[in-house]
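G., the chain you wanted modeled:
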Amino acid sequence: MFAISPVHGKPSLSKGQARLLVGKAKWLFAAAESGLDVVPTIGITRTAWDALQAERKSGTDSLRKVWVATLFKLVRPGTKPPELVVRTSAPRHVAGLQPARTGIAAPTNELEAVDTARPLGKAINAAFASYGPPLSAWATEAERDERDNQIVIVQATVDGRIGRFLTRNTTTGKLGPVPLPGEPLRKLPANTAELIRIIDAASGQHMSCVIAISGNSAQFVSARPLQVSAGAQLEASVERVESGVWTPADAVRRFNPAQLPQLLHPRLTDQNRAIPIASGLGVSPGAASGEVVFTPDDAARCRARGRHCILVVMETGPGDIEGMKAATGFVTARGGMTSHAAVVARITGKPCVAGLRTLQIDPEDGKCRIGETTISAGQHITIDGSEGAIYSGALPLSRPHIGGALSRLLDWADDTRTIAVRTNAETVEAARTALTFGAEGIGLARSEHMFFSGDRMRALRRLILSENEDDRATALEGLVDYQAADYAQLFQTMQNKPVTVRLFDPPLHEFLPRSEDDIEDTARALGLSVKALRARLQRLDEVNPMLGHRGVRLVITYPEILSMQVKALVAGVEAAMDNQDMPVNLEIMVPFVTSAREVSWVKSRVMDIVGNAPVFRRGANLAFGTMIELPRACLRAGDIAKEVDFISFGTNDLTQTTYGISRDDAPAFLATYHRRGLYDVDPFVTIDQRGVGELIKIAIERGRAVNPHLKIGICGEHAGETNSLRFFSSLAIDYVSCSPYRVPVARMVLAQSDT
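Predicted structure as tokens:
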């Protein structure tokens, strides 16, 4: 029970009381402490109010006397007590909060001041009740503390004309006063500008303010924060630094990283007028409109005609990459956050909605059914990859907000950040995009992703389908040239920044032909009969391919693949070094390992090739490491660390193998788990700190114990998610690596974690 702004003088609160102030109470206190005229206001916590009620039932009055004395701080000496106003004061908007109760008669005696049957007590009771129902028996201690410290404020009724305004422009972020939408801005008293400055500095948000105007003086009554565009919030943050209100560190600390995708991607401008026809999983942020197409070939034809299109399919695979490049956005029936479509979408910065269970496609008839709506090929839809919503028709979209203010904020973030931010990229286009966003290297270049085109896919399939060493040798000849040229371009693009290349890890089922047309085309390209190709495909079929013949197992069983790739890497380093002055920093990473003996076997063969390469004697650098994706690798990290220079955690597969859940099939039942409170979050979106996170901690501890100089990174999709990044920042890691468009988010979150 304390006076936030007493009727006379400035407030005098202890540090403990000041920490309780949130929402309206916090802004009122800031203004009163600065000496501005603020409507007399007091506050009471739920704990204090409950204690008053318990005391009332017991017949004692010690707390009641304090409460009455606090109420008298709303009354000017020698005057009649004013009518009162009761308001909630929450740290954030909660649906159902009680609006201000006005015109409440002041209590006529001490007992009436705590009586819940009388107007004041009844209003306070209702205000606390509007915060929500009582907590469940399994609520955490933090949740209980938050509920106990909830505040209700009581104010004196003000005299004079009520004025309303915004502290900043909701589009440009410019300091106000600014009229409320649809309302004229009436003449405001001279001290309004000082009020706006103080409230803006204290809140760091766009605020809607209420004042009482008497003559040429404004008395501050209330304020609440507004939801505004990320662009407006960004411009306001930079302006506060320029005007000396904040330091650069303040701007970094108080900016919400979750808003950054709004600055980098188009988004819907007016969602209130549109009702989604269906919703899936928003797996890649941004919004896009375009004609519906059902095949990658149709997407390429549509783009060639200069039109935008949305590729709507059951799922995507490596063979669809050309059509995906042509499409403006993707919709898939299957898959989740780490599905092929989701990963490609985030790399290319395109929106994607996955796991749309209501999607049915009839390619023969050229139609699909999304929810209850039938859509024909060529009709327009709009997708929101942030929210996972699908809309009928072409809706208006905003343009990305990429400008000087964003660069300045991220530069300030880098001043305090200690963990490096790299990117997951294997194309020059993706690498350049990541560099513009401030990437400090490549933490994951997936070799198999370099074959996402027609000729290259056929070459890779020829390798996979080879039945003997001679066939593989023939197939490998073409692959070396492809990869050497690709690596050279990638190294030159990144200059001397580190580039971590993961050795081949193609889950074979993702790269082999699936449809009838694809099988026929592949058979023709390879000079096989369809029957012979089917026989080979059947021999390669695996019951559980994600746990099958992939990663390190592929190069151990087919060492010629390892030899080919390392030779291509060396050739790429040589070509890059011939065209630049700075040395190439190559890091070779072995995927999907379970033991140090696997790592040692691969390392010896890599070094046999690299050791004879002159380019590493004339300045090029080489590091050898492994990707930790399996629980056993985490537990045996001490053994593995003896063989490597670095380890990098592939959190997508580590989550999959720790939970025993297929990351592509999980969306089918995770919604039920969420609804029933069995999982708080999707573990493929936000890292599971207690399980997967514990394995990572164990691996780091055991690895560094035997190799103190071991470099440690995180290269799964979690490395671009805000809550996961906050967890990673608490670990002894050197870098994270994420999709190009997530690099700014990682830079910001890691900087905030270091302040």
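The CA atoms of residues 484 and 568 lie 4 Å apart.

Shout if anything looks off.
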